[in-house]
Amino acid sequence: MESEARTTIQSGSGAPARFEESSRPLASTFAAGHSRVGSPSATAGEMLADLHRSETELRRFLHGLPGVDQVGAEARAASLATRSIKTSAKLWALEMAVSMVDLTTLEGADTPGKVLSLCAKARRPDPADASVPPVAAVCIYPDLVPVARRALMGTSVKVASVATAFPSGRASLAVKLADVRDAVMAGADEVDMVIDRGAFLSGRYGLILEEVQAVKETCGPAHLKVILETGELVTYDNVRRASYLAMVGGADFIKTSTGKVSPAATLPVALVMLEAVRDFAELTGALVGVKVAGGIRNAKDAIRYLVIVNETVGDAWLDPSLFRFGASSLLNDLLRQRSKQLSGAYAGSEDFSIE
Amino acid sequence: MTESYPTEKPEAELGTDAPDPSRGHDDSPRDLVAAHVSERAAFAYAPAPESRSIVHLQSSYGLFIDGAFVEPADGNTYKTENPATEEVLAEIAAAGRADVDRAVEVAGRAQRQVWGPMPGAERAKYLFRVARIIQERSRELAVLESLDNGKPIRESRDVDVPLAAAHFFYYAGWADKLEYAGFGPRPAPIGVAGQVIPWNFPLMMAAWKLAPALAAGNTCVLKPASTTPLTALLLAEIIQQAELPPGVVNVITGAGSVAGAALVAHPGIDKVAFTGSTEVGKDLQRALAGTGKHLTLELGGKAANIVFEDAPLDQAVEGIVNGIFFNQGEVCCAGSRLLVQESIADTVVERLKRRLGTLRVGDPLDKNTDLGAINNAAQLEKIRELAAAGEAEGAVRWSASCTLPSKGYWFAPTVFTNVSQAHRIAQEEIFGPVLSVLTFRTPEEAVAKANNTVYGLSAGVWTEKGSRILWMAGQLRAGVVWANSFNRFDPTSPFGGYRESGFGREGGRQGLGAYLDV
Fold first, then answer.
1. Which of A114, B143, B175, B517 has a CB 3.0–4.6 Å from the CB of B120, allowing a cystine?
2. Can the peptide bond before residue B202 be classed as cis, meaning omega within 30 degrees of 0?
């Protein structure tokens, strides 16, 4: 089983895996994280079992993934961005995008009042039009989760909380887990964690895997989104490796950015991540979601992402359960473009509520 | 913990348990959304047709001779049609010997009296002006190109027209610097160039031919392909608009066997530049032997696109698609032979087929179309014949499932696997959306197979190993070797072939050499 998995995964790296004495076994939480029922990595855990055995093996796997050619990936994303989405297709895409928004406020200045207003907007994005679907979730800091939880009681809108010393992730695992526990106990349905980019860039992949698994376990039934902060990983090869790392660790979603680092989400980064979830699904049967966050301010950009989803992973991911936009000002542009599609005229910016 | 905390079926709610696209949303308020969202079909792109209204089609077009549109001497005409619908677009003048005589005569006069003696800096101004007008009228040119040729508007808009403008800009810059181009201190123009171009990139080929010739001080008589004369005639209008002196550029339309043959055989022609089939190219070279005329030929190809096991896979698949399905595969440098390393052959073919499932075939004027119509009935027939031969010889044929329009000339994107080097589909140029997949085991075998062809126009190498790219580029007998890309063009880069793919280079400094008496 293990060797089979290896030959499937490693394209063309000839030498069989050998475990040197330097190979350090990863933490025992590893296996526990994967045995969870309903975890997307339950199957993956078996398929990729050999990765558990050592840091060396994990590195071999991640570096054995096919490379990403920067020029080619960017050209493909640019080419998909020229798709022209009109009339009924545009209306469909706009409404789909609304239902995929994680309406976000992550400011030091956030208050209960601000979060309540955000929740009201999330439940009913357009007060003048009940046919607009609610958004997928609100995304806030952990201390404000109780406020949002109360405000969204009985609605379909999920409460997502960032955690693990967001946005830098610079804290000990114990602190990160406490942060997660706090959010989940307060009623968060979804937890958006950050990976340790420093560890990633210095090649300590095992550390990240352990953290993701530990957070996943602490999340309990709450869904885990793993923020890669692709703006700090820089290369597409790194984005692909980090995507796999998060998925093997048990992520329900992989997410581009915190929104605090520039560049945040870009079309080619989304393309590379979508290719990773597609290949991971092929390998393990597990469908992992993708969340693009940061810098997506207008409907045109949102539709471009949906086109990439459509032509890379297809139908299954065109659903709020597998694709999200982390955004705030995007929502009003989606509403404005939607009302333009329906009425034929643009509404003024004052016609839509601010959060 | 609150009541709405998802404790019961968390896995069903976010659907992360199994690949089940019909996951439900079980929260009751969510049902509204779910109903709203799940009644959808797939993300079906609504038609997004580019408007034809920008193009003012005339019912008939004359010949462009001596700065004016004139009727052909013997009044013969033929019709050009839209290959996507078989709709007749316009009546086109069919030039005869008398028209060719006149065009060559005025071109000779213009070369000796006006264009040749003109300082390069002045010629440059005209060429820059043409380039700018091409940009200004780019949408019109793109729509007309797609109408007459059948290629998707996405390509005519994003590739053909911008490259045509880029060639004029690039060679305009050379016009006053010819003595620094490396062809000696006083490079002289050759004289009158007779240029015969194909139907696959009608405007772009016209630009590739005209821009360097004019920059070097030659005058031109251009013969566009009989099935795609319209953008060349619109370019003639642009040349009129740019106020080039009469006779510097002349466009004669009509059959290759009549107008084309008369043009290249004309004693007043000093230089022949031909892009087209190898068969015609061979005839041309025979006919021109001993005449003292300069000749460059850009002919067919059967390019190998070589994918190594360490290639960036997703981009390689895109490169394969771009290599053979760009412009319906009607590209002389198309990557029509995929040479894939045996260890990843199955994966690559599987991914390629999945990718081809998203290729959008149909109305060339729809902005979302990836693959348009085959340019003409004869070409479609040739593609069908060769595809049938592939099947007969034992290769395995696979076509993407797509609905082809009932009118017009269409061919579904097709991949042949189990192809051997001995098959016709591995040797002959198909010039259509048909890919032959072959495998190799070692770099040496890849080179041997890639070079095992009478052609040598282009090749592609896909690997993450830089040293291997350089080694391959040195081994491959092809005029262009693309590394981790395919079908990329730039006016600064010379383009041309080995062996039966022709000789002479177009583009770059080398492209000037073909139009200078050096």
1. B175
2. no
